[in-house]
Design a protein that fits this description.
This protein is mostly beta strands. 13% of the residues lie in helices and 53% in strands. It has one helix and 19 strands. The longest helix has 27 residues. The chain is elongated and about 55 Å long.
Length: 210
Amino acid sequence: MRSVTRSVLAVAVVAMAFSATAATSALASQWYVGGSALTGSASLASATVTTQNYKFGYGTNLVECDRGITLHSASISSPGSGQVEHLTFAGCKMISPAACKLASETIESKPLTLTAALGAKSPEDTVLVKPTTGKTIAEFIVNGEGCPFGEPSILTGKMTLVMPKGREELVEQELTARTGEHELEWENVEATFQGKSKLKLTSGAAWSFH
């Protein structure tokens, strides 16, 4: 009986230790800047380097933005969040239908909130992007007779971006939008979204999340 009790106690101690370690690990996940845990916030540079054009759409309806994105009043905050006053997609045009045209080559987002998390496998991280309030990510006008879009046309939902090397201290972190990893709708229809950009801090310091 004493042996059984000892075994049960040993298992309980191991389980408690594992739970405590897991909880500590989860709590410890945060932004790092220049090798140190971030306290407060750090601003993100407005200029980005786009390595894959941004595209979104559904069915035969497709928009492509080929001049990248610009961040406005963007920052990351301790422990694992961030915010963007708005971002600008530039060089945007309707790829199809051919009869439809965007009223402007720029698409401006609403204020956005960022939430970082550890990815499924090191060194990958993820960043959830969603509207700070409501569900609308962006509104824009599409012109053309018979075009199946409202005025304005609306993107809603949220997007999950991947930082392939997010746990490594890098001056530039690449964020990738991969099709099928979002809860995005255009005109209330599930939409795809893809593209890549490299982001850096205004200070030029290396940064990471782990």
